[in-house]
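Standup notes, structure subgroup. Blocker cleared on the adenosine monophosphate input:
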Amino acid sequence: MTGDQLTVTSIVERAEKFHADREVVSRRSSGVTDRTTYGACARRARRLAGALSDLGVNEGDRVATLLWNQSEHLELYFAVPAMGAVIHTLNPRLFPDELAFIVEDAEDSVIVVDETLLEVFETFRSTYDFTHIIVVTHTGRAPAGTLDYESLVAGAEAADWPALDENSAAAMCYTSGTTGRPKGVVYSHRALVLHSLVAALPDQLAVSARDTVLPVVPMFHANAWGLPYAAALAGARLVLPGPRVDAESVLDLCSYEQVTMTAGVPTVWMAMLAALDNEPERWQLTELDRLIVGGSAVPRAMFEGFDRHGLTVVQAWGMTETAPLGAVCRLPSRLDQSNADEQYNYRARQGTATPLFHIRARDEDGNTIAWDDAAMGELEVRGPWVATGYHAGRGADSFTADGWFKTGDVVRIDPHGCIRICDRSKDLVKSGGEWISSVDLENKLMSHPAVSQAAVIAVPDNRWGERPLAVVARRPGTEVSADELRAHLAQEFAKWQLPDRFEFVDAIPCTATGKFKKTDLRTQFATV
Ligand code: AMP
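Run returned:
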């Protein structure tokens, strides 16, 4: 074997040589749709790499992006890893303080910002000294003190791609921790290439040259689940929705662009289902073959609801630490003749591990559980696209001594290896696909002079999947209202992270070791 290195460059070159005419569509915030091709994106990526080198970006340097799903982001997905630098995608929904921490922690050099995200950028700009700020403008004028993306691309010489080690860093993404600061996950070239190959397999996400792929999942969330690279590798047409991902906008795009597959968190599809139920005839979705849904548990009602419209939902499970794809739930042929109830129950599971990805689950005593669909344990994983550590050595306790990553998801596994998430050992709330740390909220609440105890739990929510609920015990003789506590939290948390509900109690039940008994709280308040 010639032993060529598995690098993102090979994906970029393939897109350029073999899929040059395949379309890449970007819908802008204005509603205007721009059309380009993989060939043009790859050629522009060479010039972009030339421009970044001229600005002093070297191999290993981090290039931050604050962009939507748009063709410029794809160009950066191509250019930055292929030139040997590391693309670091920033989540504009984070609190300014978190963004400030993340860019500092990653030691980003250059940042590329979409014009429509400049307001977000301004909230943390002064905290960090980027070497250059590049702005993607749609009005044609970059603000003073910044560089214009288009002018840079137009004015630079095309770079030649350097030979790279497949184990070198290609991309980076931060994930929220249970407590404290977000942690950086660094993806190697090898991980991204193998992930793309496996994601494209028929029983996985099944990405082919005949597909038109619409990633609703943002390109700042774990590489948009690997779809941009898988699509470029396969030669699938790519439709990038920009900032507007409300149900009607996504349905319009699916219908107009004849999308065959799309992917995102349940919140998006809940809204989409409601829109379809309201106006079943409005959209032509005859080409739409599958909706990949993950990031949070997919309720059974969602499978049933989309089935009524002739649309197939496929559940997938993954994590930022796993690049992200780890499991996909496809109905096995042995269940073809089963009744609808059995089939729905199966499809509502998180699925079987993707090829080359290994799973096990261990109980609280550290014993590996049987695959009998009864025993429960924390899911542990390993594989070519599973992180072995976080950036700067953080979170070492998430990795076992024998090389497995502890997911914090509590699962049952059936005899065929199909997992079902039953609980979460990490103290987090996942709302609309974004994490909220219960512990951070609790600490901030307990810093209020009128609060003696505070526990934050996740409660089910039809729209967002989960929402935080705060259970608070006041200090004797003090008074504080829910609104006052919300204002107190708003000093450090984004609006969407604030609990919608506060329940005041005399005392919060605790375990023998002094931890809040959150299971009791969930039973008491989850359905109120
Ligand atoms: P993130 O790193 O933000 O992508 O979050 C990963 C976590 O999201 C997992 O550890 C799970 O807790 C949750 N998650 C992802 N996919 C699913 C799914 N299909 N069902 C339930 N939870 C999921």
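Discussed briefly. Residues 175, 222, 294-297, 315, 317-320, 324, 350, 407-409, 421, 424, 430, 435 surround adenosine monophosphate (CB under 6 Å).
Next: hand off to the docking folks.
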